[in-house]
Fold:
Amino acid sequence: MPSHRTVTYLYISIKMYILLRMIPAISFQNITRSFRDHFWTRKKTVIRDISLEIQPGEVFGFLGPNGAGKTTTIKIITGLIRPDSGHAAVFGAAAGTMAAKEKIGFLPEAPYFYDYLTGDEFLKIHARLTGVQDITRRVDELFSKVDLQNARKQRLSMYSRGMLQRIGIAQALLGDPEVLVLDEPLSGLDPIGRKEIKDIILQEKTKGTTIFFSSHILPDAEAICDRVGIIISGEILETGDLDTLLKKGIEADRMTLEDWFYRQIKDRQK
Amino acid sequence: MQRIIAVIENTFKEALRQRILVLIGVFSALIIMVSIFVTPFALGEASKILRDIGLAVPALLGVLVAIIVGSQLIHKDIEKRTIYTVITRPVRRSEIVVGKFLGLLLLILVLQVGMAIVQQLTLFAYEGAFDLRLFIAFPFLLLEIAVLLGILLLFSSFSTPTLSSIMGVIFFIIGHASPDLKLFADQVNVPLFKYIAYGFYYILPNLENFNYRLELVHHLPLYTDQVLYSIAYGIIYTVFLIYFAIIIFEDREFK
Structure:
């Protein structure tokens, strides 16, 4: 017979597990955001009433054509912009607050970094901004993880596109975040670069990190994601696991994702 | 604190690695040194001229660096999107503003120390003795530049570098014309003009408060109350400016 104490511990653990599962890693509730180019032009709605929940440990691919609202959505999670209405949260903490930012590692789209810094200086400064304890050890680890040891002392202005993307991933991983938010992590890279970045993302996936990434390229999503959401013209069209979606619409007509996007957009314009 | 230091370090390195700054620095040092060759034409005023140039050049250098770098301090980061990886970290926006301000002030401090040394060596080469009293001018110069940087940071947090630098120059000129504004206010007879002039006099920074060059060059006495007033004025004015810059920056979005 298990002792009373064991049963209590078991009960608490199960309860905690359920409770943790109930708090999504990322949640959007009815997010709408519009912009205007100039104060005299009309507002244009970029994302409309988006609701989404991403569970802890899930890898979520946010797919959509250029200009669909992917980056705007990502900027709302990371606190770079605020929604007009609705609520976004990271593990229950409102997006943009210190509590939310502590949990996120973020790689912006086509990242621009301080190019007057060397790779080493860049990571160390960001490590201090993140509040990393053992900076030297963590920075060493990440340089070997993204395979840039030989370029540590080089200025970022000398880095190639692929190297910049890798150091971008490294800076996102600095604080060992629970949630990784990657905006188009694979775009603009050659096949080797894509493979390297994908491998790093997959490693993080096995560690149980929640990953939210945007892309407009279907094979990327296939390789990495548990679940995808498809956004077109600021609205979420479908969410679900990729296999189901593929069977449902895309592959049934032997379409590429681009064809499918194209048809969807044309349908909407009619 | 760790985070502010990281921003300070980043700002300092960014500014230091701009070639134009090295150029301005070297050029300024050269002007101070070359002032020795002007002395034969000075007709007995050589020591005054050496001191005048030695204090005027660092002041201009500081203002120039503040305007060139300060006007794009925040704007460039937003424009180049380099701020994205900073602002999305667990960092307060106020820490970024304060760090940037202190980073650039630190750079100007380093430049000023360099200029002060060049100036003393030049004096020593000509007179065979140092005039350490001249060092007193530098903390006040730094206060003046802190106020100016505050203005630039404030404008830089919402407008373009061009507008910020123009405002920097305008505030610099008005700041030094402040005593004249007071004189105008005292003497004008039309009440409306009087109140407007007083209003501007009290709102706009009075940069002449930090100017002790005349006293130092001519070996005149300095009065404690006046010196304390200058220090308090500089610090309070700068804190207000930074505070407003933070309020604007807190509210800013990065589209």
